[in-house]
User: What shape does this take?
Amino acid sequence: MLIVLDEGGKGEAAKLTEVRHAQREGWAVLLPDLRAPASLRHRNSRWLTAAWMLDRDLLNQRVWDTIRCVDFLSDRYSSAQQIDKGRIAVWGTGALGLVALLAAAMDRRVAGVVARDLQTLEELMSSEEAISPMLFKHNMLESFDLPELADYISPRMAMLAIDDDEVGSALANCGPRRRRDCGDGRDHPRADPHGGDRRNATAMPVPAGFRTAARDRGRGPSVEPHGTIVPTINELGFEPDDITLVLTHPDADHCGGTASLRAAYPGLKVVAHAADSPPLGSPTDTIAQRYETFARTDDMRLDSSALARIAGRLGAGFEVDERITDERWFSHQQTRSAIVHIPGHSHGHLGIWMPDERALIAGDAVMGYGIRNLDGSLLYPPQFLSRSTYEATLDRIAGLNVDILLCAHEAPMYGADVAAFIKDSRDAIGVLEANVTAALNSGAETLTDVCQAVHENYPGLPPNRAADLAPSVAAILQDLHANGTVQITTADGLRRFHFERSKDVR
Assistant: This one.
């Protein structure tokens, strides 16, 4: 999403080359009218003078207007599906370039900023006679100039004084990554739960032998030389022998290709939770425990093509070097971080918690209403192995007061969006339980039949994906069995679920 600021207001902004270029490249563009556009300001200098005299200078008010635009975009959708909130950029021309830079400096939801036709603040103040000095704070140049402001915004992208030939590259540097090239000659959509995503790989520095920790891996092709992770590690200049790979859980899109990454970096150290390893490290065990969980008890099996596809995504086996059972805290350059246990989606699901930034890399520990496609439609529902454990993890994450939530298949979430996503996750459990209860009341007995009935009533699921519900439906049924509401029997080799007669729910 690109917010474009121009002295002439939205009418003049709509004529800019960068706006047309951005739209051709697939950007959504917001053209706001900030307070006192050029046409109004030159006719009403008294208003401008009054604003300055009251210590409410126009610059501050315009920065506030821009941040309110970011608020509007961030609050518009509860789960950040239609707008990638992690890719909001601000583009300013002339004096509005300073506004864009200040807004980015004050609001970290802004992922990138461009101040076009602007290199230094002194240049802006002295070269444009039409620009009133009352736009600016008194003695501003004694505090900073634009290069210092750009450094403050780092590591987010900030570009100054670009020309027409650089418009395309500037947009690309902070643009929406809707599709990605894995080096296999094909494009892959953003929400490919089995194929991985650029966001599935996170590099962070930690000390004491863990100079670099890469969280999760993704699918095999993205660790090849023309893929994602290896070029990123090389570009960042990390020492290959000091890299630790923290695997969150044993799904193909989070552990597949680990063997290929180890081949690229022989000194790689692989860390996982003991509750997930095994099956982590063994493709055969991973398929049996994560993808064929209900084959023996409920005859819910994958077909041969699905099994072959998953095996290919998992890649070769690998050794887990360290199986942790407790949390690990680190500090690096006065920044603290921890490998934390946040189970539910898997028994040993791990995440990375950075309390100073209040940021949590959560993998699939929180899933909202489910994993979504790029257009916002559901791909599959939330999946958890234990309802109580999943709810406890939601409680824990809510208690951490997370300000930045990084999930594997979602755009980054900030502030109120984090709380909204956790609420979505809780609500989804309630919807699933209500539909499980309705399925049992309608006569469904086997796990397959209950999943099919729930699939028909869970809002937004695509057709022919009832089996994706099996982990969560089975967890809810087990929870109802534990509290005495549901009886589990076996007939013809299949588990069957019935309400206890005295506890029928109607």
Notes: The longest helix spans residues 416-441. The chain has a mean pLDDT of 79. The first strand starts at residue 2 and ends at 5.
